[in-house]
Design a protein that fits this description.
Layout: E1 2-10, H1 17-31, E2 35-41, H2 48-58, E3 62-67, H3 73-83, E4 86-91, H4 103-110, E5 116-124, H5 129-145, E6 154-161, H6 162-169, H7 178-185, E7 189-196, H8 208-222, H9 225-254, H10 263-296, E8 303-306
Parallel strand pairs: 1-2, 1-4, 2-3, 5-7
Antiparallel strand pairs: 3-8, 4-6, 5-6
Helix pairs in contact: 5-8, 9-10
């Protein structure tokens, strides 16, 4: 059995692959033992797969998986995890924002008796104020509305034991949120803090739209809070409506005032109720959509080509 497997999802990272390989091999050789590098090409539009094939032909420890199309970051990581043979597995992105040299520290920390050691960001360089703010809010909101402890300010960069990998393989839901799944699995977990660097080269594939979908996956996969919110809104609107009925009844029969029949007040009430209903239907629809996707039991991904 291999000592360490490294899973690297790749999407348009041609400018980073060779340097990433050099830095990874240097730190893994310093740790000692056998290792494998599993690059998962997630439908890249540049020549990433060509570079991976060249590396694989020159170095036997380099493995590649070329997916049939772009399935998304979390599915690409899952595809790599399905093929790992290591006693311990590293998950790291190819953009070099997460320093490969930190793997040695993660490895040493795991030797203290942990099954999961994740990297926690102290600072994130080269990212906009809006991205930093939205990420900070997301992690803290998710932490407060879930029943499990999902560490804040962490990504997927971590070292996990093979028993955790085996547990993840038994969780085939389509809308993956791996950091939440790893927390849900349990075992002994700890962290090491680090400063995240700027992207070495190229552009990020994580648009705000993808970040929003990713946030939805995390919330709907590990929290029923939105559904509970729908219930609370339903009770709130019903209470307001009931109080309005009582008030109208009181004014009509116990005072000398006339009940106003203004168009504006009527429209405000209709729009308010309609807005609450649409929000409620949307939240319920999001959960139902995910249930529908999982019930179909379609494969998470298809492999176009691989040397594993």
């Amino acid at each position: 059995m291999i000592d360490i497997s490294v899973v690297i999802p790749v999407y348009n990272e041609a400018l980073n692959i060779n340097l990433l390989y050099e830095r990874l091999t240097k730190v893994l050789k310093s740790i000692g033992g056998s290792y494998e590098l599993i690059f998962v090409n997630d439908g890249s539009r540049d020549n990433s797969i060509d570079l991976l094939k060249i590396l694989a032909s020159q170095h036997q420890e380099v493995k590649y998986i070329d997916l049939s199309r772009n399935f998304g970051h979390q599915i690409a990581v899952s595809a790599g995890l399905d093929k790992t043979q290591g006693k311990r597995v590293v998950i790291i992105d190819a953009d070099l924002q997460d320093p490969p040299e930190l793997i040695a520290d993660l490895y040493s920390k795991m030797n203290e008796g942990y099954e999961v050691v994740y990297a926690k960001r102290k600072r994130r360089k080269g990212e906009s104020f809006l991205k930093l703010l939205t990420a900070k809010l997301f992690y803290r909101i998710l932490s407060n509305i879930t029943s499990i402890h999902i560490p804040v300010d962490t990504g997927d960069f971590r070292l996990i034991d093979s028993k955790v990998v085996e547990a993840l393989r038994q969780m085939p839901e389509s809308h993956k949120f791996l950091r939440g799944q790893i927390s849900w699995v349990g075992y002994r977990q700890t962290f090491i803090e680090y400063e995240r660097e700027e992207r070495h080269a190229g552009k990020t594939g994580y648009t705000y739209r993808k970040m929003f979908r990713f946030a939805l996956d995390g919330i709907t996969a590990f929290s029923n809070f939105p559904i509970k919110l729908v219930i609370v809104m339903g009770f709130l609107v019903s209470t307001i409506a009931f109080l309005m009925i009582v008030y109208t009844f009181y004014v009509k029969y116990f005072t000398n005032q006339e009940v106003e029949r203004g168009w504006a007040s009527l429209m405000v009430g209709i729009l308010f109720l309609g807005g609450v209903q649409l929000i409620s239907i949307g939240i319920l629809g999001e959960y139902i959509s995910r249930i529908n996707t999982d019930v179909r039991k379609r494969p998470l991904y298809f492999i176009k080509e691989s040397n594993i």
